[in-house]
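Complex 470.
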Amino acid sequence: MTISKLISDLRNRRKTATEITESYLQKIETSPLNAYISVNKEEALQKAKELDKSGDFSHPLAGIPVGIKDSICTKGVRTTAGSKVLEYFVPPYSATCWEKLEEAGAILLGKTNCDEFTMGSSTEGSAFGPTKNPHDHTRVPGGSSGGSAAAVAGDECVFSLGTDTGGSIRQPANFCGCVGLKVTYGRVSRSGVISYASSFDTIGPLTKTVEDAAYVLEIIAGKDKKDSTTPNISVPKYTEMLKHDISGKIIGLPKEFLEVNGIGENVRKETEKAAKILEQRGAKIREISLPLTEYAIPTYYLLVKAEASTNLAKYDGVRFGSSSGSEDLTDLYQKTRGTFFGDEPKRAIMMGTFTLSSGYVDAYYKKAAAVRRKIAEEYARVLEEVDALIAPVSPFPPFSLGEKIDDPLQMYLADIFTVTANLAGIPSLAVPTGKQNGLPTGVQILGKQFDEAGILQLGWHLESACKEEK
Ligand code: GLN
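Predicted structure with glutamine bound:
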């Protein structure tokens, strides 16, 4: 079910909001996927009933059931960020993005599973157990927004919100076969979203179709006085531009991406095939070079772990995750952080405080910040010559549960194609292209800052061509 189809069903009284909400809740209750950390059953049903009673379905998302990543604050509904530190945290306010969806009439089915504090690429880092890939229950759904992606692909919500700091929307969307949009840094307010790395974090939709992603973006994007990194740039009518002709558009194919060590043969072929499809629709494909690609992973991980170590400092047991029986303040800090943080946040704190410490800050943090600037400049330069880039999302298809969780470096390397968009602050859309050996395939389309309209358009054409092929 897509948003547009459900809206038409609701407005034409073919279905009631209660019926729809009940059927999704039932699906969640009997699901083996573990896509949700908390289910918002009573409130969801109550809201659906109120809507049916009023009969007013004029709001843009009236009666549409949604899953929200558990790192996004929802007033009165428990929000854990996948961590034991926040196991009993019920936020007294909502994130701006959820507030906007709620005002638009969306119904919150529950909070979707994610890696702890959104650090990870498999959702195995959640303190509430891993989520399973709906296409193969022995495999990961990707991460960190694995619950959001599995919920969409497994029909446990119509669409969801995720966050993307280094690929956490696009990679799970790619692994589960749904559309995932990472926006330009600042396009969607981060207010009320639990931070991983504040200068990288973005919020965006995971949906069944490109059209749905465009529709949701129109609602959640824009300036927010609670987030000073949201510029006052108007929000276009993305949905009205989707079908515009793409002939003459130039799309860059980064050669370093396709030559990366460890890239699967099928992944490379799928990317080239997607480029061909866009070529048949009138676009021009040009091979381009991004020589700094090899520095992306170390640069990204140095910087995000540094930012994470400061963002995690507030979970000290005074406000969050207090442990009983502490002897003094130091003991309280140690017990709280020692007991309630999982492995990856602990690694982030150790790596981050190390690279920010006085003896090392110049050699690591500042160096990485300088390389980040170079990478951003490289993308800006290339994107002056081409309209967009096409690239793989993950070097390999969904891996098995347990395969990489004990090898953090292998897990980090899974992000090779996604982190650069966050380093450069540019938007990127993950689009499914089909299936191979029963597992979803897809590509990402990267664009210039604030050109979400352009990549959604290309994504729409790719999606419709892939559907025709089937
Ligand atoms: N896997 C990456 C990391 O752990 C990306 C996470 C994200 O985008 N939130 O940093």
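The pocket of glutamine is lined by residues 118-121, 144, 163-168, 196, 304, 415 (CB under 6 Å).
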